Amino acid sequence: MCVVDILLTFGRFYIRCRTTQKLHWDDILNGAALVALIGFVATYQVYLPVEYNAELYGLGLSDVAPTEDELNFSLKMTLANVILFWSVIFLVKASFLALYWQLFRVSPAFRKAWWIVTVYTVLSALVILSAEVWRCNDPKNPLNLGTFAYLPRPLHISPFLNALD
Asked: What DSSP designation does 146 have?
């Protein structure tokens, strides 16, 4: 799926450069979202084998126990993966907001609504990213994963996804 995203993003860049000879803020933010998406997929691919082995061992289907170093590495990659997940989401939102800023140039009322939505989006991004780090333990030491290791795997993605149900 990442290949489709790469092709669409570069297609977007090509069309924008052909029509306006420059990239706009919405294009740059969309490109940043693509970079975060590639990082998200890469971190997932890196930590998944260790986690899969740990699950097999925990279920008694494997005799190979994961080492402490492997588990710590997996937890760090999981945290990076969660942060990249939310980065993709909010960079795409920022890309749309930048596009809407250009479209709403003609209407001061829409620009006021845009500011309200933008402030809400920035605040929600700060709250979500802070919550991801704080629930791991002390926010001054985010790599001390503390309680993050004891959360069930679906909760590693985020408790905020459960609120959407």
From this structure: G
Burial level of 101, CB count in 10 A (0-12/13-18/19+)? middle
pLDDT tens digits, one per residue of 113-155: 999 999 999 999 998 888 877 766 666 665 565 555 544 444 4
pTM of the predicted model as reported, rounded to 2 decimal places: 0.76
45-94 per-position pLDDT tens digit? 988 888 888 888 888 888 888 888 888 888 888 888 888 999 999 999 99
DSSP string, 37-102: HHHHHHHHHHHHHHHHHHHHHHTTS-S-PPPHHHHHHHHHHHHHHHHHHHHHHHHHHHHHHHHHHH
